[in-house]
Design the sequence.
């Protein structure tokens, strides 16, 4: 049954890839690809309904995953929705520049990598699997009202990519390039931090080290207690910056992208405070933990949070 989640996510993608109809001649070979469906593709390609179209794509991914596991709406479904929205956007508005391709690639990598990581973590770490099951407190049909608001939120976050694809920048190209670089940097930082923490927690579980703080404390965790959260914020900030030169004088891109960025920053800030509190309650008083906490930043690395300049690695 655990594999059902992966199959459900795949079926959501395949459903969006259903062909629109048979090819009727050479001209049809130059039309937009079959995914997403025609009405969604048209809204993605032009007009004021681009964000609602992204939300429709996200909702199609979230619905089956949320019905299977309520907690997936914030985890596996979140990453899957971002990845599929990026895929749908690039199919509806194929990238015409190398910068657009790289920006889309960062979003695809971020979304699908995150979904696979969260799924693998849930399938291999029993404590996390139990935590995900504990979210299943609401009857399945009563979970449906949650989906539209989450889909719209994820669409707002991803919308800068859509506008960057629609209107490749001719002015402020350096700004878009910097934003793309930040998005890639954030997605890679989060991937490395997730892998580092996953391996450490797996070792802790196998050695039954519960109650004793063992880290991770090196690598990215040497200057930041939550570098995966930092990478998340950096990715979304970079994607927004990459899209700004394509926004022009339109109010919708600024509003949607700004709300998405503000929302995810608030979520990551709150998650940092909550996890810091839990760790302090569980490990506070242990010399190794206290020394590590004193020399690291929370959401941002210590050298961004007023600590010793350039401090990245240290010995406990």
Sequence:
């Amino acid at each position: 049954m655990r594999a059902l989640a992966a199959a459900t996510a795949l079926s959501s993608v395949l459903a969006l890839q259903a062909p629109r109809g048979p090819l009727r001649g050479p001209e049809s070979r130059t039309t937009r690809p079959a995914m997403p469906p025609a009405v969604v593709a048209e809204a993605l390609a032009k007009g004021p309904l681009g964000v609602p179209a992204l939300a429709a794509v996200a909702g199609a991914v979230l619905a089956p995953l949320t019905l299977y596991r309520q907690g997936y709406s914030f985890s596996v479904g979140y990453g899957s929705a971002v990845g599929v929205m990026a895929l749908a956007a690039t199919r509806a508005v194929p990238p015409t520049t190398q910068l657009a391709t790289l920006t889309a690639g960062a979003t695809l990598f971020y979304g699908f990598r995150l979904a696979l990581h969260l799924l693998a973590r849930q399938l291999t770490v029993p404590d996390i699997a139990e935590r995900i099951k504990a979210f299943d407190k609401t009857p399945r049909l009563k979970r449906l009202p949650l989906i539209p608001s989450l889909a719209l939120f994820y669409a707002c976050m991803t919308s800068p990519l859509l506008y960057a694809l629609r209107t490749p920048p001719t002015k402020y190209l350096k700004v878009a390039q910097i934003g793309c670089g930040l998005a890639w940097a954030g997605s890679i930082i989060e991937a490395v931090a997730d892998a580092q923490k996953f391996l450490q927690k797996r070792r802790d579980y196998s050695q039954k080290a519960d109650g004793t703080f063992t880290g991770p404390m090196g690598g990215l965790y040497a200057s930041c207690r939550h570098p995966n959260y930092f990478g998340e914020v950096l990715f979304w900030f970079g994607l927004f910056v990459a899209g700004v030169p394509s926004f022009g004088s339109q109010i919708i891109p600024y509003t949607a992208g700004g709300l998405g960025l503000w929302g995810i920053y608030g979520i990551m800030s709150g998650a940092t405070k909550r996890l810091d509190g839990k760790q302090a309650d569980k490990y506070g008083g242990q010399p190794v933990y206290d020394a590590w906490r004193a020399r690291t930043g929370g959401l941002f690395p210590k050298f961004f949070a007023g600590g010793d300049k350039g401090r990245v690695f240290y010995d406990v």
Observations:
- Residues 1-30, 305-316 have pLDDT under 50 and may be disordered.
